[in-house]
Structure formats: C-alpha cells, structure tokens
C-alpha cells in the first residue's frame, strides 16, 4: 500500500477534505496533466497532487491528476530522491600507493 510506513496522512491539514473538494471542483473533476502537444488529459481526476513536493497544502500548489499521471509523477519524484541519496553517499577516493607518506 502506498501510504504504508508514511507519515504523510498525519501531516495533512485538518481541513484537507474541504481543500480536496475545492481542488476537484476547481479542476472540473478532470486530470490537469498536459500532453506534449498541449492537450489536456481526458481522464477523470481522482488524486489531488502537490505540484511542488512537500507540505505546502495551499490550493495554488495543488492540482487534480488521474491515477496514471499521478503514479508517473510520483515514480519520477521517488527516482529523483533515490538518486540524490545515492549521490550524497561520500566515498573517499582511494589514493595511489606511491603518493602515500
């Protein structure tokens, strides 16, 4: 399950259901993702997505996505986060034996 082990649900504001309803109404119940040719996705939106990841729950940072676009975006964010962790692991460069004192 996607929420398993996550603290995300606890970090949502108490009025999240009302915020979610407003976003769904604003986005007319349709996915807001755009295809490369500029067309909007035709599928119903079911997932309220944070445009910029994190805990900014302002409506300007929220949009409605279909499950396919939301999964695609979340997977990309997860991959980026994992890559940053891999890059941040510092491994000392081995020194050439001839340069050791």
From TrEMBL:
One of its GO terms (molecular function) is endonuclease activity. It comes from Streptomyces nitrosporeus. The keyword Hydrolase applies. This is HNH endonuclease. Residues 73-101 are annotated as: Disordered. Keywords: Endonuclease, Hydrolase, Nuclease. InterPro entries: HNH_nuc (IPR003615). CDD domains: HNHc (cd00085).
């Amino acid at each position: 399950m996607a929420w398993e082990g996550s603290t995300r649900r606890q970090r949502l504001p108490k009025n999240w259901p009302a915020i979610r309803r407003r976003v769904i109404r604003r986005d007319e119940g349709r996915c807001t993702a755009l295809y490369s040719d500029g067309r909007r996705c035709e599928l119903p939106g079911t997932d309220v997505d944070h445009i910029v990841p994190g805990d900014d729950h302002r409506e300007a940072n929220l949009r409605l996505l279909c499950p396919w676009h939301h999964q695609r975006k979340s997977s990309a964010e997860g991959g980026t986060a994992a890559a940053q962790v891999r890059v941040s692991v510092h491994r000392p460069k081995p020194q050439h034996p001839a340069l050791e004192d």
